[in-house]
Amino acid sequence: QVQLVESGGGWVQAGGSLRLSCASSGRTLGNLAMGWFRQAPGKEREFIAAISWSSPFTRYSDSVKGRFTISRDNAKNTVYLQMNSLNPEDTAIYYCAAAPNTFAFTTGKVDYWGQGTQVAVSA
């Protein structure tokens, strides 16, 4: 079993930056892809970024491409999401997830979920 724990959420003004972290425990991530979703109030959960296990291949949603960067440290079993140029539309709960490959994130068919961390961006 894999447990995913997010951290790094908080409040920031528009134009600012935050870095989210997701650490796994229970067992190593093996060759799982890692990624992030978010859910804003009253909206469905949305895929935003994913990264493969090795020779890192990344996927991004159009809404964050060019502003957010996903990375991972396999030795630390941790994945990161660097978020720059934040705007109020980025306000949401951000969830970390693990799946067999990055494509699985685009269909929402992930194997493990974190509990989420809140990000709030004020105008």
Q: Estimate the strand proportion.
A: over 45%
Q: Tell the overall outline.
A: globular
Number of helices: 1
Low-pLDDT runs: none
- The assembly state of the depicted protein chains is single chain
SS-derived structural category: mainly beta
Q: Helical percent range?
A: under 10%
Total beta strand runs = 11
From the N-terminal CA to the C-terminal CA, the straight-line distance is 40 Å
Taking all Cα atoms into account, the compactness measure Rg is 13 Å
Biggest β-sheet description: 7 strands, mixed
Mean pLDDT: 94
SSE order, one letter for each helix or strand: EEEEEEEEEHEE
Protein architecture, described:
The protein has one helix and eleven strands. A hairpin with a 6-residue loop joins strand 4 and strand 5 (46-51). Helix content is 5%, strand content 50%. Strands 2, 4, 5, 6, 9, 10 and 11 form a seven-stranded mixed β-sheet that branches. The model has no long low-confidence stretch (mean pLDDT 94).
Outline of the structure:
The chain has 123 residues and is mainly β. It has 1 helix and 11 strands. It is globular, with a radius of gyration of 13 Å.
List keywords for this structure.
single chain, 123 residues, mainly beta, 7-stranded mixed beta sheet, 1 helix, 11 strands
Helices and strands, with pairings:
Elements: E1 3-7, E2 10-13, E3 18-25, E4 33-39, E5 46-51, E6 58-60, E7 68-73, E8 78-83, E9 92-99, H1 102-107, E10 112-113, E11 117-122
Parallel strand pairs: 2-11
Antiparallel strand pairs: 1-3, 3-8, 4-5, 4-9, 5-6, 7-8, 9-10, 9-11
